[in-house]
Amino acid sequence: MGDFMKVGVGTNNPVKLKAVENVFSIFYPNVQVLMISVESGVSRQPFGDYEIVKGAINRAKLVLKNSDCDFGVGVESGLVEIPMLDGKYGLRQWCAIIDGDGRITLGAGGIFEAPSNIVERVFNFGEEVGEATDKIFGVEESKRKEGLIGFLTRNVIDRTKLTEHAVMLALVPRLNVKNYQISKIKI
Question: Quick check: helix, strand or coil at residue 165?
Fold first, then answer.
């Protein structure tokens, strides 16, 4: 790899690309971040940590399979049940970073409670959170911009910032390799 690093992000969403670029460039000044459109291999609106993580891993693996990148990065967002609050759901993003040797690191971003009107549209109409957000807030393509979190926090936190946390936390073991036994998977 030398001083130059090529990172592929398994997405067609500019928010995810920008978040990965922002975080990787802090630690790797000579990084090139590429958008590589791949499928998640999970449902359109993932539910539960297992399915969200699986989608992120699938994306990262497909990046490596379909490119000559040093790292494949997958970011997947989904709904999770909030413990202790019956019937309440939150949104969480997971990031998977996989290198050419199959070493994998994962990180999850913060979780916030999704409004009940968004959750109802997801479960009753099969919409993605982004689609429900667009309809309720009267906007278009919010998931490619500020995201639901942007509307809910008056853009104090937008989707890019939220995604950056997941990416940063997935990088932690790679930045501290002496302290970690990094897992390996088949790519």
Answer: helix
Confidence at residue 142, expressed as pLDDT on a 0 to 100 scale: 80
> What is the DSSP secondary structure assignment for residue 101, as one 8-state letter?
T
Token digits of residue 163:
């995604």
Contact by Cβ (8 Å): 9, 150: no
* Number of neighbouring beta carbons within 10 Å of residue 63: 27
- Spatial contact of 6 and 99, defined as CB atoms under 8 Å apart: no
Give this prediction's pTM.
0.94
Residue 73 contacts residue 167 (beta carbons within 8 Å): yes
Residue-wise pLDDT tens digits, 42-96: 999 999 999 999 999 999 999 999 999 999 999 999 999 999 999 999 999 999 9
CA-based nearest residue to 41, from 28, 24, 56, 26: 56
Query: What gap in Å lies between CA 146 and CA 138, rounded to an integer?
Result: 13
- Which is it for strands 183-184 and 103-108: parallel, antiparallel or unpaired? antiparallel
Residue appearing with tokens 């549209």: 121
Do residues 170 and 154 touch, judged by C-beta distance below 8 A? Answer: no
- Given CA atoms 172, 175, 181, 183 in this order, what sign does their dihedral have? positive
The DSSP element (H or E) to which 160 belongs, if any, is helix 159-175
